[in-house]
């Protein structure tokens, strides 16, 4: 068990992150951070884990030895590894690799586990006549509050990305250079504001389901005419990329 995540899973078996958080009186976001990024928690949490489960300190910290050395000795078929005396919260804090403390502009500490970092891609969805799909390597991450993503959008952060808008066809709803948060889990044709790939181009439009597997694409700017696409046509090179959940704009 080389990773701390694996050791945590061993101690709790099939328990879900919510149960682990309740057992430790800890935030579920902190538990999820361990499972998603394999981070090591703070010293106080490590102490709580050891006291609750009675496991060996050295095994909990490093994965070396066995989790329950007394049971191993009684069974006679595992390596004997006695707990190392003298461990305490201060020693643990000095021994693990910790994330540098982050503070806001007022000097208040910030818990990074409360945020998710969504990739911002060098791709633009045209609010005009279409814009070719460009380089799909992310440029940088954009931070959003995890609680807002999970409880207001009801979205999985892994399904989200941020891209830019180009053009004026969605004005005044969306403007040129707006950033939009796209939920790629919502890829079924529906009514709403969606990013759609047509051939090699991305467009952002209001979409409306029409009879006969047709999809009507409409602009907010009245000078642009609506048009229909047959999404069921075998040769139609059309794909719903995702639903627009949020936008950001520089004023």
TrEMBL record:
Keywords: DNA-binding, Transcription, Transcription regulation. The keyword Transcription applies. GO terms for molecular function: DNA binding. Residues 146-244 form the Peptidase S24/S26A/S26B/S26C domain. It holds the Pfam family Peptidase_S24. InterPro entries: Lambda_DNA-bd_dom_sf (IPR010982), LexA-like (IPR039418), LexA/Signal_pep-like_sf (IPR036286), Peptidase_S24_S26A/B/C (IPR015927). This is Repressor. It comes from Eikenella corrodens.
């Amino acid at each position: 068990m080389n990773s701390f995540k694996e050791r945590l899973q061993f101690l709790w078996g099939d328990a879900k992150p919510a149960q682990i958080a309740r057992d430790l009186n800890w935030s579920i976001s902190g538990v999820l951070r361990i499972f998603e990024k394999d981070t090591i928690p703070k010293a106080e949490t490590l102490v709580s884990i050891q006291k609750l489960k009675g496991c060996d300190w050295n095994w909990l910290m490093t994965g070396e030895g066995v989790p329950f050395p007394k049971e191993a000795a009684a069974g006679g078929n595992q390596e004997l590894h006695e707990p190392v005396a003298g461990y305490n919260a201060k020693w643990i804090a000095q021994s693990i690799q910790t994330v540098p403390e982050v503070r806001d502009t007022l000097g208040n500490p910030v818990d990074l586990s409360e945020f998710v970092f969504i990739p911002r891609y060098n791709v633009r969805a045209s609010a005009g006549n279409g814009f070719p799909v460009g380089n799909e390597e992310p440029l940088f991450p954009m931070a959003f509050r995890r609680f807002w993503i999970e409880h207001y959008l009801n979205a999985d952060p892994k399904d989200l990305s941020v891209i830019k808008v180009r053009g004026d066809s969605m004005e005044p709803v969306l403007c040129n250079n707006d950033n939009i948060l796209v939920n790629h889990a919502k890829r079924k044709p529906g009514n709403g504001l969606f990013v759609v790939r047509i051939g090699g181009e991305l467009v952002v439009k209001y979409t409306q389901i029409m009879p006969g597997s047709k999809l009507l694409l409409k602009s907010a700017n009245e000078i642009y005419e609506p048009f229909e696409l047959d999404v069921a046509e075998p040769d139609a090179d059309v794909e719903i990329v995702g639903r627009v959940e949020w936008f950001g704009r520089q004023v």
